[in-house]
Amino acid sequence: MQANNWRKSASETGDDEAMNGAAIITENGEEIPITEAMIQQALKAMEENWNPWSRQHMSMRQRQKG
Question: b or e along 46-63 (b: 16 or more beta carbons within 10 Å of the residue's beta carbon)?
Fold first, then answer.
């Protein structure tokens, strides 16, 4: 599959090779490959927003102890 066809499915491009990875499927059925950069961005956002002392975290810890 060529770079300019990355949003088209294999059946649309005539490429019979299986996709080696994962994709997000849009409401319109388009496949958007999940890239390393997307994963890194998501992990960074999770790390920056993680709060181990949040109410939800503390209530889970209480249930584990009790």
Answer: eeeeeeeeeeeeeeeeee
Report the distance separating Cα 65 and Cα 59, nearest Å: 10
pTM strictly above 0.70: no
Give dist(CA 26, CA 35) in Å, integer.
16
- Judge contact between 34 and 21, C-beta under 8 A: yes
Contact 33, 22 (CB under 8 A): yes
What kind and span of H or E run contains 31? strand 31-33
Residues in the chain with pLDDT values less than 50:
1-5
